[in-house]
Amino acid sequence: MAPPPTGRRKPNILVTGTPGTGKTTTSSLLSDATEFRHINIGDLVKEKNLHDGWDDELECHIINEDLVCDELEDLMEQGGNIVDYHGCDFFPERWFDRVVVLQTDNSVLYDRLSNRGYMGSKLTSNIECEIFQVLLEEARSSYREDIVVPLVSNCVEDISKNVTTLSDWIRSWQPTS
Fold this sequence. Notes:
Helix 1 (about 25-35) crosses helix 7 (about 155-170). By secondary structure, the chain is of the alpha/beta class. The longest helix has 17 residues, at about 155-170. The strands form two sheets. Strands 2-5-1-6-7 form a five-stranded parallel sheet, sandwiched between helices. It has a two-stranded antiparallel sheet with strand order 3-4. The two termini are about 15 Å apart. It has helices at about 25-35, 40-50, 65-80, 105-115, 120-130, 135-140, 155-170, and strands at about 10-15, 35-40, 50-55, 60-65, 80-85, 100-105, 150. A hairpin with a 4-residue loop joins strand 3 (about 50-55) and strand 4. It is built from seven helices and seven strands, in the order βαβαββαββαααβα. The radius of gyration is 16 Å and the shape is globular. Its main location: cytoplasm. InterPro entries: Adenyl_kinase_AK6 (IPR020618), P-loop_NTPase (IPR027417).
C-alpha cells in the first residue's frame, strides 16, 4: 500500500516503547542532530493540562487523547516533529512517516525502572509489556507495516547508532505528492 500524500516537506517520527527504553534520550539526541521539534507527550500533557486527572494506581496523569490530538494537529501538518510517547494507537495514522519502537532487554529495563523508583505492579506491568512486545504489536496494528521499525536500545552505543540510523533516514526522506 502506498503512503498517503501529505504535502509536508519534512517527515514526522513517532518514538515509542515501554517506559525506560530510551525514548526521551533518543528523541532529544535526534532532535539535536536534525533540528526537528521534539514533542514529549508526557510533558505536553502536564504543561497544557491535556488530562482527565491522576491515576493513583499507575501514578500518572490520565491523558485525554482527543485534547492531545487537537493540540498537535497543526504542528503535525507542518512536519519536522519527533513525538515521544509510550503509546501510539490513538494518534492519526497520517501523522507519521516512521514509527520507531525501542526495545530493551528485560534485565537492563528492570534496572532502569527500579532506579526510577518503579515498584510493585507498576514495575511488573512495564516489564511484562516489554516481554510480550505489547508496543510493537500496537504499532504494527495501528500503522502500515513498512513504516514500523523496532530498534534495540540497551546501551549508549545502541542509542547513538539509532540516532545515526534515523538521521540518515530523515536526510533520505522524500515527500509523497
